[in-house]
Input
Amino acid sequence: MQIKKKQHPSFRISNLHAKNRSRLADRWRTQRGIDNKKRIKRGGYGAMPSIGYKNASAVRGLRPDGAAEVLVHNVQELSTISGKVARIAHGVSKRKREAIARQAQISGIRVVN
Output
């Protein structure tokens, strides 16, 4: 089953196209200037993040294929998950990653990273 989440525009800082902002990363910083057109939501200045872009609670946090993924730190946690998708935590060493991946393959659990 394919999960359909709401689409939203890319939220960018204002004047990202300007010459002096060409080195800036694509990110969002809220507008604080008193005369800023984006802050007062004038047309043509790009969208601002708001609560209306939030997804339904039923699909929030799910993967595009509809599965909920579980963060796993060790092999024991792998045996307790009920879902079929696991993500190995950032701080797990290479040796433990291999052990988790081996156990997941035996259990039929998909590891996404």
